[in-house]
Amino acid sequence: MMNKQKGKLLVVSGPSGCGKGTVLKKVLKENSNIYYSVSATTRAPRYGEENGIHYYFITKEEFEKKISEGGMLEYAEYVGNYYGTPKDIVLAKLEKGYDVILEIEVKGAMQIRKAVPEAILVFIAPPSMEELEKRLIGRGTEKLDVIKSRLKKAEKEMQYQNEYDYLVINDEISIAAEEIAAILKSEKLKINKN
Ligand code: ADP
Ligand code: 5GP
């Protein structure tokens, strides 16, 4: 008996500034069956960021209320702010057959590993730490002290690579995007043994 396959849950992590947003934007442009999960956060919007598109920008109180109601699939604190994945919409999209991408940091990814064992975990790394620093400075969206704390955090995050299923190095944007699409494609071709 053939069951209608539900969508795949793809978790993507990597240090801030390695290019996750840039690469995933390309993946989404080229693959229409993917839903990119919009997270909630307590951090302030960056220039050009819109509520409901890049994040749901909410207060600490609203965030904590959502946690207590069990409304977050996972959440974590990152450099002084909360970030979390709203549960209902992700589960609804998977049920409808969409593949869902969560772009989240490592602690959240480990929570997903436990809560959704069939999730696919992809780590995106920069070609080098020097290049990461260049990209963070080049993006120009954070002050130097925030860049410094994100770089410090990056060293720790890189140690989590081995907990992931796949490693993609973002040297060339288009190659990294192709690799992520290829991972998703082969996971969809896998024979379900259960
Ligand atoms: P993240 O989402 O991981 O924080 P971004 O997507 O915002 O990172 O990328 C950080 C900066 O690096 C941006 O200015 C982006 O244009 C640049 N960037 C992303 N990927 C590459 C790449 N492969 N080569 C050079 N610059 C890149
Ligand atoms: P930024 O402030 O640069 O947008 O994001 C900071 C970090 O938080 C990034 O590593 C990003 O992947 C992560 N992040 C974004 N949304 C979520 C989320 O919903 N949950 C968790 N755990 N991390 C998130």
Structure, described:
The protein has 7 helices and 9 strands; from the N terminus they run E-H-E-E-E-H-E-E-H-E-H-E-H-H-E-H. Strand 5 (72-78) and strand 6 (81-86) form a beta hairpin. The model has no long low-confidence stretch (mean pLDDT 94). The chain starts with 8 loop residues before the first strand and ends in a 5-residue tail after the last helix. It has a 5-stranded parallel β-sheet with strand order 2-7-1-8-9, sandwiched between helices. A 4-stranded mixed β-sheet has the order 4-3-6-5. It has helices at residues 20-30, 60-68, 87-95, 106-115, 129-139, 144-158, 173-189; strands at residues 9-13, 34-36, 39-41, 55-57, 72-78, 81-86, 99-103, 120-125, 166-169. The protein is globular. It has a single domain (9-189), classed as 3-Layer(aba) Sandwich (Rossmann fold), CATH 3.40.50. It is 42% helix and 22% strand. Helix 1 crosses helix 7 (173-189) and helix 5 runs antiparallel to helix 6 (144-158). The structure holds adenosine-5'-diphosphate and guanosine-5'-monophosphate. Guanosine-5'-monophosphate binds next to strand 5 and strand 6.
In short:
The chain is an alpha/beta fold and 194 residues long. It contains 7 helices and 9 strands; from the N terminus they run βαβββαββαβαβααβα.
